[in-house]
Amino acid sequence: MYTLSSSGHFRDVELVIGCGDMPYEYLEYIVTVLNVQMLYVPGNHDPRFDPAKKATHAEGGTNLDLKIIRHNKFLIGGFGGCIRYRPDGINQYSQADAYSRAFSLLPRLLLNRIQYGRALDILISHSPPFGIHDDSDPAHHGLKALNWLIRIAQPRYHFHGHVHLYKRNLENFETIVGLTRIINVYPYKTLEVSL
Ligand SMILES: [Zn+2]
After folding, report:
1. Residue 8: band (very low, low, confident or very high) from pLDDT cuts 50, 70, 90
2. How many angstroms separate the CA atoms of 39 and 2, rounded?
């Protein structure tokens, strides 16, 4: 979960961002209380999205998986899911599948570059990139497609979840790569963002 605010207080939150694996009832509760827009991507513990089934998405929010939208002046893109570690896992992708998904964002990224002079401002994903905030167990390998997306789209921010922070990795939640601040938002953070 990530929240953007002008002063770091919940009452000033302008946008709620869910990075996956948060119960949809909880996201719905937050969006009701704060009465602001909410964008989210699904995680590996979330159901498979089905527009016809209410329980597969969060009411009052926008599932941003493989979408890029403009919110105020920010170009925000979403990339749900994580590495495939179970054959029947939901919202899980092989590295190759994840690349295919990332490539599908290219036309919009190029259009943004032409229209706004930049491809993307904020990338929201469930998984971390490969080798950044990820872990050695099969369920927590990062996705290489995210490293590629960051390299070509150069967003100012990349927010992700999936990797829980414990004592041993508590310090490892923020990394800067090129122009991008990569932040593990577990369990939640408030942040003021600017372009
Ligand atoms: Zn997860």
Report:
1. low
2. 10
Q: Where are the alpha helices (DSSP H) in the chain?
A: 24-34, 95-103, 106-116, 144-153
Enumerate residues with CB within 5 Å of ligand 1 (an ion). 21, 43-44, 162
The C-alpha R_g of the chain, in whole angstroms, comes to 16
Contact by Cβ (8 Å): 92, 137: no
Cα(114)–Cα(30) distance, integer angstroms: 36
Over residues 88-119, the pLDDT tens digits come to: 999 999 999 999 999 999 999 999 999 999 99
- Rounded to two decimals, the pTM is 0.93
Strands (E), the chain: 2-5, 13-18, 37-40, 61-63, 68-71, 74-79, 82-83, 92-93, 122-125, 157-160, 174-177, 180-184, 189-191
State in Å: Cα 84 to ligand 1 middle. Answer: 11
